[in-house]
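cron nightly-structures :: item 1 of 1
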Amino acid sequence: MLKLIDHIVRISARRDRTEINTALLEAVLDLFRPHSLRIYRCFSSASKVVVFACAGFGEEGTFSHNAYLPERRYCKPIEQDRLLRQAHREASIVLDVLTDGSNRLVFPVHSMNRLIYLVDIVISETFPAEQRVLLMGLVEYFTHHIALLDYGEGDTLTGLANRKTFDKHLFEVLGQAANDEKNSFISGQRRRKGGQDGRHWLAVCDIDHFKQVNDTHGHLIGDEVLVMFARLMSESFRYDDQIFRFGGEEFIAVLQPAPQSNVLAVFERFRQAVETHIFSRVGHVTVSIGYSQLLPNDMPSDVIDRADEALYYAKRNGRNQSACFESLLAAGEIAAKTSAKGEIELF
């Protein structure tokens, strides 16, 4: 019992998803010696649920991945696993007896009526009943702790990740970008000019004339527009793209590495989804989008400033459009700036 309490204290001291997952993994391995364990983070859209194996233990040993940055090689549609799908559908613990007699248990973890995690554990058929109770209690504690963290990381109105979460996430993405650039240089795999096939992208999305919506219809209707706008965002981007409410009517999207032409298509699809949607009691609204590549040596303010400059260009030139900083710079529509580090910002 003292070991269990010690592990609960360790889990409760964590405020980072990756660290919490690792602490749960260590606790289960130390206390219950399972045959295997998988901690899946879940990403839901209108059409599918994708699960990301962010920590676990099995034949390949122990592993832990950044829970904020899903890697596609560790992701799969939930439909590929019958028991995971069943736990999601029934929203309760499910059990399966495997061919060797061992028991596979899947625990769903929900927050604000959303499936956010699945904990998948395989234990011996002779696993004592009292140990099963303790295991269920530990996973339930993990559920509550993650739900509190999820509440703290989310925007209370829209349900998207909030500004505080964005700040943390962007530093991690920039760190990953720097590592990718270093590894590609060491391996001799230089990117094409502009790095358009291997870098993340950041976009600032701003609802056009939102103040008029509040002034004409009131703030409650304005909030309804923000909620619906956030839903359209969630439906328009991929599960491994990250979206945030930055503040007011301003939202941010951080996209996985992709060619510039593909990125434009993604933002145009979203822009058109907003333009054609009928917002209750308001009618049509539009969005302006400014976006830029994330560079290996960027500070967060650098890439936000570039995306903001592209956004201001879109606003000044008719609104309801997507503008790329790099394209505008190449066309001479905007000028290169000197960054805070004293370097000329180009590509």
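cron nightly-structures :: done
The CA atoms of residues 166 and 321 lie 24 Å apart.
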